[in-house]
Amino acid sequence: MAGGSRMRVANQINEKKILKRGNIPSSLKDTNESKAPVGPYLLALFIFVVCGSAIFEIIMKVQAFAGQ
């Protein structure tokens, strides 16, 4: 059975990897953890759009309520 011996060899190779699981060398870890995922300009634009649209919507509701 060629399939059985091939499976046995694959199991022996992967058995060594199981013992190493979770032990990541420090060279592979990301050392720059303080970096923000979003840039400051993009964050400012997002806040401007969200807050601006909320304020604009409130003004439109007040004008529609006052016009009745």
UniProtKB/TrEMBL annotation:
Q: Name one Pfam family in it.
A: RAMP4
GO cellular component terms, alphabetically, are:
endoplasmic reticulum membrane
**The keyword Transferase is assigned to this record:** no
Subcellular location per UniProt equals:
Endoplasmic reticulum membrane
Domain of life the protein comes from: Eukaryota
Q: How does it sit in the membrane?
A: Single-pass membrane protein
This chain's source organism reads Oikopleura dioica
Task: List, in alphabetical order, the GO biological process terms annotated in this UniProt record.
Answer: endoplasmic reticulum unfolded protein response
Q: Does the keyword Endoplasmic reticulum apply?
A: yes
Q: How does it assemble?
A: Interacts with SEC61B, SEC61A1 and the SEC61 complex. Interacts with CANX.
Q: What is this protein called?
A: Stress-associated endoplasmic reticulum protein
What this protein is reported to do is described as:
Interacts with target proteins during their translocation into the lumen of the endoplasmic reticulum. Protects unfolded target proteins against degradation during ER stress. May facilitate glycosylation of target proteins after termination of ER stress. May modulate the use of N-glycosylation sites on target proteins.
List residues traversing the bilayer: 38-59
Family to which the UniProt record says this protein belongs: Belongs to the RAMP4 family.
